[in-house]
Amino acid sequence: MMKPRLWIAWILCSVTAVAAGSEKKVPADNDGELFVVVMTEDDTSTQALFDRYPEVSGSWEELAKFNLLRSGHAIEIPRQLLSSDGILAKVGNAYGDVEVKRVFDRRFIPVVANLLLREGDELRTWNSSGVRIRFEDGSYVFVNSHTKVKVVSLGEQQPSAASRLQILLKEGSVWSRVQKQLNREFEIRTSTASTIIRGTHFRVKVEPGDATRVEILEGSVDFQAGGEPVSVRAQQGALAVGGGKPITSSALPPPPQSLDAPGDQEVIRSDEFDQLFRWSPVASAVSYHLVIARDDQFFDVVDEREVGREASVRIPSMEPGTYFWRVSAFGSDGFEGSFSESRYFVFVRRQP
After folding, report:
1. Gap between the Cα atoms of 172 and 208, Å rounded
2. Residue 305 phi/psi, 5° resolution?
3. Position 139 confidence tier, pLDDT thresholds 50, 70, 90
4. How far apart are alpha carbons 63 and 268 in whole angstroms?
5. Residue extents of the structural domains in the chain
6. What whole-number percentage of the chain has pLDDT above 70?
7. CATH code for 259-349?
8. Confidence of residue 328 (pLDDT cuts 50, 70, 90)
9. CATH code for the domain defined by 79-251
10. Strand ranges (DSSP E) for 199-273?
């Protein structure tokens, strides 16, 4: 296996680049002259580099700070170099305008892929944005548009009765999939309620009037908002308003049985995209939720909208590519059911 290459630089008196035993001139910058050396595959350590260049009087820490520790610079760290009492979490897929406020910072800054998350970190999403928080055990929480969440607790590496993954949903909505073999409790809190997850697939939503809504697609949760918790099982929903006792709903509305247009695996050839999306109606539905994404896990969403009672909507102006889509239904009580099976289509611009 080849050892990683590492570039280091320092300011001295002339301009020379040394790389794998060869030298060449490089332009000087306006602040002084710069020497550059390259650590090669033959170097077994950074100390070997210093042994080869005794004229370097600076320390490795000083050179690392000069080269790497810039504000906003991403540094990749292998898992084996990280230690933690809790399980590790990081930013997975993200699209649109997503920001993070680290526990040690006052500001929100844009997220980067694979960003290591710590207890106390906050994430927020804006319009047409989303981000997935990934945990080491394979579980994840997907943060939808216009949502703010905080990582409260990452539990313990060795699960115990007191070990708990805990996310605070301040506003907006999330959906999550939890591994069935998870031995620790997983909790999503809001300002008025908490959900202890025993299931595997669910949504939690914060709505106006201090309302918390949960929708259980697989498994079950204990939903508590003052008083005794209410057990909510698969294909049920519960709503708590202002901290009052949760009310278990009737069954969630079923998904559409078929997605009719565009056809499954259809190739759409046109100068511009202007497509009618159509699906089978659900008798109890008052509206529908349409999601279009670039991937079959629906982590990279390109269009998402609520549609009225009509089981169709026209979507214009999409770029060429392969897209997956699915639809869910909303009942008259405001609960959203499971999504339909997804289908995909390909849009190709017609050649002139």
Report:
1. 10
2. -155, 155
3. confident
4. 55
5. 6-67, 79-251, 259-349
6. 84
7. 2.60.40.10
8. very high
9. 2.60.120.1440
10. 201-207, 211-218, 220-224, 230-233, 236-241, 247-251, 259-261, 266-270
